[in-house]
Sequence to fold (176 residues):
Amino acid sequence: MWFNGAVMTGTAKAVVLVGHGAVARDCPREWVARLKALEARRRASGEPMSAEERELDTRVRRWPRTAQTDPYGAGLAALAAHVRRQLDGRLFAVAYNEFCAPTIEEAVDALVASGAGEVLVVPSMLTPGGVHSEIEIPDVLAHLRARYPDLTLRYAWPFDLERIAAMLVEHLGRFA
Fold:
């Protein structure tokens, strides 16, 4: 909701499931190679994203996808369907860290527009030590907190490794 130019948040509770993202199999590889080169140069220099990098990022993220061209996306959508059913009617969105749309920012923007006043962000990446879950996602959330100061925005990280191990061992039992 907008009021006098300020973003007003609602009262609904929401969840964003964040996946890593994958390049669609039929997306031009030269786009991806150039995008990764620009990203590496930006990270090394500390400069903001260039117009060329932003345009390539958008093209790669918005590339048309099917289950055949983006099996990762299809897998995350299947997981999301299971998560959504267990959320007791909370608002829900899927977002991607890279290569796919929507971005975390776009997902949170949509949830706020739908009345979210509290957003809980959970990555599908389970183990510590990854740059996405430990650096990039927190950086995006810091930016969103500045944009939406009245929004309660929490990050469900890190995972309890003992619980993850128990789930994996239980899963192994199905194959023993």
Summary: The longest strand covers residues 12-19. The two ends are 53 Å apart (CA to CA). Residues 28-62 form one domain.
